[in-house]
């Protein structure tokens, strides 16, 4: 038997509860993992509360990432006792996820926990940090270098945004952080932000082209904000888009692309090749503060459902890790 958050559907309503399940109920995978830590992402909160169409199969154990220890394995790359982590691959949406004491997944979805990284540190970083690092790597691959001009980060107080600020500053970029929470300005500057921008300045209808401000950007907002960023990006700059809190529509023109050579790069953190995952996680381990995991709040499975409702309601939850 093992504990898990179980989501069930009844009359198109989602019912979430903490249950004790039998091991034979686990979804089929070739590696079974003891979950040492997971985390609570906004996508998990939407699934638990039923506020978003996240779950594809019922019943479902949510949790889009986890880190833990291999209990059994039919996969050639993993043995009992190996420390592993998983993000993405539809876990917590299509197959059972990490908000549980155990998980059974395809070994091809796992990567080894980086040397000297703890499971708690991995989940303090989580999908949010992984996405932020993919954004940084995309800008680097596009040729955006420190010294070419400021890099904009939107949604800077969020999980992805706050880690992006840290990573970019650590890599030597001048970071401008956009937020609607001016009370967090000092905190963002402590992370490495050079300048704080009110998000209202960006949430306006853009002209086809505006004055050139940004050498690059990591955008977690989308919508009108992304359109305006593109119109303000410098010649041969690049924008990594990884979020849609501002909407899914993108009403822009071809002008930034054909007159300034701007690149718009989509960040999909779900289906990433193994080698790129390993590279990103190693860089995360090296780039973030040694005791980064001490900055997050630790919850138990018993507290997850209430925390999910608070998160969706916009109440302060902060970055959390879950110890089953």
Explain this structure.
The chain has 324 residues and is an alpha/beta fold. The protein folds into 2 domains: 146 residues, Medium-chain alcohol dehydrogenases, catalytic domain (Quinone Oxidoreductase, Chain A, domain 1), CATH 3.90.180; 140 residues, NAD(P)-binding Rossmann-like Domain (Rossmann fold), CATH 3.40.50. The protein is built from 8 helices and 15 strands. Strands 3, 4, 5, 6, 7, 14 and 15 form a 7-stranded mixed β-sheet that branches. A 6-stranded parallel β-sheet has the order 10-9-8-11-12-13, sandwiched between helices. Strands 1-2 form a two-stranded antiparallel sheet. Helix 1 crosses helix 8, helix 2 crosses helix 3 and helix 2 packs across helix 7.
> On the 0-100 scale, what is the average pLDDT?
93
Instruction: Tell me the CATH topology of the largest domain.
Output: Quinone Oxidoreductase, Chain A, domain 1
The major pleated sheet works out as: 7 strands, mixed
What is the count of helical runs?
8
CATH architecture of the largest domain: Alpha-Beta Complex
Distance between the termini: 13 Å
Q: What coarse outline follows from CA principal-axis ratios?
A: globular
Please report which band the strand proportion falls in: under 5%, 5-15%, 15-25%, 25-35%, 35-45% or over 45%.
25-35%
Query: Quick one: CATH superfamily of the largest domain?
Result: Medium-chain alcohol dehydrogenases, catalytic domain
Strand elements, count:
15
- Helix fraction, binned, reads 25-40%
Supply the number of structural domains: 2
Poorly predicted spans = none
CA-based gyration radius = 20 Å
State the order of secondary-structure elements, H for helix, E for strand. Answer: EEEHEEEEHEHEHEEHEHEHEHE
Q: Name the structural class.
A: alpha/beta
